Amino acid sequence: MTPVTYGKIYHSNELFRHFSNERAFVGKKICLMRLSAIGDVCHAAAMVTRIQTHWPDAELTWVIGKVEYQLVKLMPNVRFIIFDKKQGKAAVESLKNAVKGETFDALLMMQVALRANLASRVIKAKRRIGFDWARSKELHWLFANERVAPRQYSHVLDGFMDFADALGVPKVDTPSWNIPVSEEDERWGRKQAEALGDYVVIAPAASKAERNWLPERYAETADYLSQQGKSVILVGGPGELDKTTANAISAYKPSIKADFTGKTSLHQLLVLLKHASLVLAPDTGPAHMATTVGTPVIGLYAHSNPIRTGPYNSIDNTVSVYDACIEKQKGKKWEQLPWGIRAKGDNLMKGVTTDAVFSKIKAVL
């Protein structure tokens, strides 16, 4: 197949017409660039699993963030190149050395951030596939020679699947994930699960405090779950916001059986999520991690549209006031606004009531 040249940018549908007598994609030496964050890496992992399922002989290289690597590092037949953005120019130089002398059949540019776009210049590829015009930001389009097909109102995961479509990978009805953990972490998780019994996970902290639900409402919900015969545990990362959020909840002395905040690796956390009967979380990584292992999630949303960023298999379980918030702020429904626009404000999560959450818990459990 003749490689796509830098002189002309083809839409992926045009590629099928342009190469009407050839397969959409023959080469299978593929590099994907998705550095962060945990939730997005979960979505990208579904696309990687799709490629590996249908093209088991594909040579996959994933340029990924330092923390996010810890979640997917045991995925089989994937070569990972860690890009530590804190290192600045040194990180770019390290990436350049890692791919020196290589030319990929395709580079999947799955991150629109300018930092990632600039770093991608050191990666040589016949096809540099980026997002369509509507999803291209921060000059993303300048660094690609091909775009995925446009899609309206897409979940982030579906947007990532567009890259597999552009390669010609057969479609799947539902996504699947192959994110292995070590046997040691699996045993640790099973031991915790046996001690906890039938338990629900509350992962209360998002990356920004404004996206967190109120501590007293988390506490009230923990007591409600306990009344339903469930053990309740808190989980979270080692960051200061995670710890202060967990402490603020614990100050109300709710029925919390264990607090694992800052005490687990990502793989240990994944096993805890797998054995839970339910996860309650705002817009945060553990919600998407739980999705990868088949655990239902009740997502709490106000700032972002759960149709776009909610836990993929539990969109119907979300408790969201996003629609009302965005219409109040913009004077229009979200369907009339640019896709993915966020509502702004420090107190929007107050609109998520405990009654609405209790009702959803009843429905899910």
From TrEMBL:
Pfam families: Glyco_transf_9. One of its GO terms (cellular component) is cytosol. Keywords: Glycosyltransferase, Transferase. SUPFAM superfamilies: UDP-Glycosyltransferase/glycogen phosphorylase. One of its GO terms (biological process) is lipopolysaccharide core region biosynthetic process. One of its GO terms (molecular function) is ADP-heptose-lipopolysaccharide heptosyltransferase activity. This is ADP-heptose:LPS heptosyltransferase.
